[in-house]
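Bit of a strange request maybe. I'm writing a small parser for structure token strings and I need a real example to test against, not something I typed by hand. Could someone generate the tokens for this chain?
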Amino acid sequence: MLTVFRLIVMTVLSIYLSPSIAQQHVIPDFSANYQVHLNGIQAGELKRSLESKTDGKRLFKSETQAKGIFAFFKPEIIVETSLWHWNESTIETQSYLYSRKGGKKDKKVHLNFDWSNQRLHIDDGKQPWSLQLLPKTLDKLVYQLALMSDLANGKREFTYQIADGGKVKTYNIIILGEETVATPLGEFSAIKLLRKRERKKDRKTTLWCVPSLNYLPVQLEHIEKDGTVFTATIQTLQGIEIEASHELVETANKSTLLQQ
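Reply from user aminoacidic:
Good idea to test on real output. This should exercise your parser:
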């Protein structure tokens, strides 16, 4: 009888404590503006927004536009949209659209995620084709929402299958530690993450995600192979309260002063 009781208790504990069980993390609708710098010089603006639709689907949008002198040399506007919904506790992409306008050559790519037939349909306006759609495949925009959700669920290792560049790639994200990030909205206690690539000479992408902002990135950094550095730092935020983040930093600063 005691053995049976212990087995029941262990089973219940494993259900509630197992880190492999994901929960649907509610990410509220929001809009955020980021200032983009190229090698330290202000170069443009990045806008991100998440919107709920009446049919239950959600639209994640990213728009990047050059500003100032960079707009004269490269007057491009890049817009990405991802339409998705929750499938139990997993983000499931329905469609993804990439659009680039204003430069020497416009570009448009549409991805349709046909889950019923397990096919990924790709249309670049030239030669449409399709690939086998692997389970839990995401587009290269919405995976950032999946990362926010996984961080909220306590995960510490992140691997995603991403439809990118006409094929499915594996994105591996690792946690580097915690840092305080200064922004025009104030200082935030953030988790620093790195997209780990196969070769050290490859591009390098780093994110700083804030726990009290639903793990929204407040800063992004991308380094190209030639050493060119792109950074995006949050300037404005609507839809997510920011007071709690400041309290975390202020408490940490007070604790440091008391120890000195």
